[in-house]
Design goal:
The protein is mainly alpha-helical. It has 9 helices and no strands.
Length: about 200
Amino acid sequence: MTTARRTQQERRDQAESALLTAAAELVVEQGVRALTLANVGERAGYSRGIVTHHFGAKQALVERLARATQAGFVPGLEDLPPGLDRLLRLIDGYLGELARIGVFNQAFLLLWAEAATQPELAAIFRERDAAFRADLSDDVEAGIADGIVDPAVSPAQTAVAVVGQLRGIALQRLLDPQSVDTGQLRHTVTGYWDRALRR
């Protein structure tokens, strides 16, 4: 019996996935300073040369890790049109995902917090946060256009407040999991935004 050989692209994708997983684990276990190309390669079972081949430098590795860890945090939103329903589902889904927060999401939060004092991280996370806020602002604007959201609401300010609240809850959950009841918060926080925004 023969097994099909993996293509070069499949081998490349597998190596990149293993390297990003190793990088996320290192950030969670030892902090951002432990994130060196050599440490990532050793952790993943590859040489530093492979890490350099895939990412070039630590900055590119961190940027790729930031993108990988934030992508698809709340599944099932891709097909929903912008509007209040999508915004509320995002809030509810985000808090629901915190109940089973994985290593990639933990790494993202730690990198995000570290970006406040690390200039090389700041640009990456400013870009990611700007995209997140733009999506939320689009939802509020669509809700206003649909006549569902109060037209006096500022889409930009609402987006800043929602991101701040979700990330703040996530960091508290990471710091002290027992004190953050994500099941109860899903109801409380989603209900708050529904009442605050609805016309």
